[in-house]
């Protein structure tokens, strides 16, 4: 079995809207930065894989434009997933396991600000015959799930608000965070609903962003950095598309992915891709993380939520804490689809 | 058995639309701002790099930021072209007309634009052309500020020269 590690992570500052720069101009410095951190030239990278969505850019084949930020000459070995970059990382990880390559660069980019209504863009991932024609926006679908959680799990609205307080306090230490600060449960409970039972602070910000990760195998990783973040387990599971056939109050796909990724025992940190506060509660229940873990030290998706980027950022943020030796074992989670439809769990260790 | 006799629903109409505010980017903005002044610029990523116009912010070969601005055109050379003979709905120009790749002087990749004021049969690679701007009160930071290109009457550029520089 080939050992694969994250050896570098870089990201652009997350902002509500970058009026000046297009996706390529946001991405290019990140791709240079992630290589410079480990002194790798483009010719040292064996495979490039990216995650993004044409629905965010509002134009077809936008990922091909994204490659202008990398530079595809001489011709490169490249692939793309129309998903969060975490799934691009999974593809690169599989390719590394084959032994065909030693290094891979994975990146993700997205400007959620371009669409006049990003929650309507997300509606287009619903079943086009029976659900999408009703135009349920992303916040309303999340609210449906939050209501089900409050009505049947024993979790409370105050617990949801406490997630936002925790994540945004953590985000004060993250220079790339978009929303950070000292919030309080009482103040959040007093906010008007966006869609009941979700207050504004229960919802993620709209973010423009990009991030990149470099993976390396075995001795190549040991040569590049002192503390490679070894991927000791990674798995993803998907639930049915139809919201009505799922139990929205639990995340079986997360639980099974965690089991397959051997995500048991103690973790120092966990980065959870939970755009809405109640989704963090669902994930924490599914992952059974225990009391000593620091959840979302970066602030998570409530601090910045660049769609297609935020999942890969969770893996990068978790890995960074092993790379800088502030954590020995970390869990990263990424999600895709409405109401936590698809989930990935990644276990990273320093040894 | 009314249920059994019901016709299959084999088509439904679900109108959907989403709208976007496109971000030109810093590099394309530079180009468009200059177009409004009847000038054109390209960018390159370092002294020996290719000049791209309209610039997109990075060199697509190297991925490096194109931080050097270069004035290009406004005259250029036709590198290849097509003659449009088939009318279609909403067509703005009368057939036959010519769409050409025009290598602006000083640039390394051609732009795509309409070629007019010339018989389609007379258009050829190597032909020298210049932009015709729309009236001053219609000028703006948009490609539509260039109404079309037209021949200058200068001698043709040697095709071997264009081939040598990988321009055709």
Features of this protein?
heterodimer, A: 351 residues, Peroxisomal Thiolase, Chain A, domain 1, 3 domains, 10-stranded mixed sheet, 13 helices, globular, B: 168 residues, alpha+beta, 3 helices, 12% helix
Strand order, main sheet of chain B: write it out. Answer: 5-4-3-6-7
What is the β-strand count of chain A? Answer: 12
Count up the domains of chain B.
1
**What is the makeup of the main sheet of chain B?**
5 strands, antiparallel
Low-confidence stretches of chain A: none
N- to C-terminal distance of chain A: 16 Å
Q: Which architecture of the largest domain in chain A per CATH?
A: 3-Layer(aba) Sandwich
- Helix residue percentage of chain B: 10-25%
How much strand content do the residues of chain A show?
A: 15-25%
Mean residue pLDDT of chain A = 96
Overall pLDDT score of chain B: 92
> In the CATH hierarchy, what is the class of the largest domain in chain A?
Alpha Beta
Structural class of chain A: alpha/beta
Low-confidence stretches of chain B: none
The overall strand count of chain B is: 7
Distance between the termini of chain B: 70 Å
- Oligomeric status of the shown chains? heterodimer
Would you tell me the structural class of the helices and strands of chain B? alpha+beta
SSE order of chain B, as H and E?
Answer: HHEEEEEEEH
Number of helices of chain A: 13
């Amino acid at each position: 079995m080939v050992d694969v590690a994250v050896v570098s992570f870089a990201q652009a500052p997350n902002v509500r809207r970058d009026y000046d720069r297009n996706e390529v101009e946001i991405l290019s410095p990140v791709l240079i930065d992630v290589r410079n951190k480990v002194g790798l030239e483009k010719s040292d990278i064996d495979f490039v894989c990216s995650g993004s969505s044409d629905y965010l850019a509002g134009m077809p084949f936008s990922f091909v434009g994204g490659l202008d930020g990398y530079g595809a000459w001489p011709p490169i070995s490249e692939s793309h997933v129309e998903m969060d970059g975490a799934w691009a990382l999974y593809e690169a990880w599989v390719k590394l396991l084959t032994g065909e390559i030693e290094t891979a660069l994975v990146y993700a980019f997205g400007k959620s600000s371009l669409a006049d209504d990003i929650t309507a863009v997300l509606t287009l991932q619903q079943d086009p015959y029976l659900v999408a024609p009703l135009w349920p926006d992303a916040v309303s679908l999340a609210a449906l799930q939050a209501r089900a959680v409050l009505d049947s799990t024993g979790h409370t609205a105050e617990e949801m608000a406490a997630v936002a307080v925790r994540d945004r306090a953590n985000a004060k230490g993250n220079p790339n965070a978009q929303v950070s600060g000292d919030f309080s449960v009482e103040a959040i409970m007093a906010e008007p609903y966006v869609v009941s039972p979700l207050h504004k602070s229960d919802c993620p910000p709209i973010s423009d962003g990009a991030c990149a990760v470099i993976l390396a195998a075995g001795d190549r990783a040991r040569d590049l950095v002192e503390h490679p973040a070894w991927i000791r387990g990674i798995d993803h599971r998907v639930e049915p598309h139809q919201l009505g056939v799922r139990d929205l109050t639990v995340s079986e796909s997360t639980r099974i992915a965690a089991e397959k990724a051997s995500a048991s025992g103690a973790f120092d940190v966990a980065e959870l891709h939970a755009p809405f506060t109640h989704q963090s509660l669902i994930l924490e229940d599914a992952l059974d993380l225990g009391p000593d873990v620091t959840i979302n030290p970066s602030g998570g998706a409530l601090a910045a939520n660049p769609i297609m980027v935020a999942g890969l950022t969770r893996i990068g943020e978790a890995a960074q804490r092993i790379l800088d030796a502030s954590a020995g074992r970390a869990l990263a989670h990424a999600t895709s689809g409405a109401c936590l439809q698809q989930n990935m769990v990644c276990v990273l260790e320093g040894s | 058995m009314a249920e059994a006799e019901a016709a299959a629903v084999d088509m439904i109409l679900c109108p959907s639309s989403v709208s976007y505010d496109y971000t030109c980017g810093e590099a394309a903005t530079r180009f468009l701002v200059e177009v409004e002044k009847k000038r054109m610029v390209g960018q390159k990523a370092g002294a020996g790099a290719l000049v791209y116009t309209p610039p997109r912010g990075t060199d697509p070969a190297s991925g490096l930021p194109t931080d050097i601005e270069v004035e290009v055109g406004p005259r250029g050379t036709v590198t290849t072209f097509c003659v449009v003979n088939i009318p279609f709905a909403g067509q703005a120009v009368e057939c036959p007309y010519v769409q050409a790749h025009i290598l602006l002087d000083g640039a390394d990749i051609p732009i795509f634009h309409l070629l007019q004021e010339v018989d389609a049969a007379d258009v050829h690679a190597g032909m020298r052309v210049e932009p015709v701007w729309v009236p001053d009160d219609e000028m703006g930071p948009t490609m539509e500020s260039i109404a079309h290109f037209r021949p200058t009457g200068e001698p043709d550029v040697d095709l071997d020269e264009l081939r040598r520089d990988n321009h055709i």
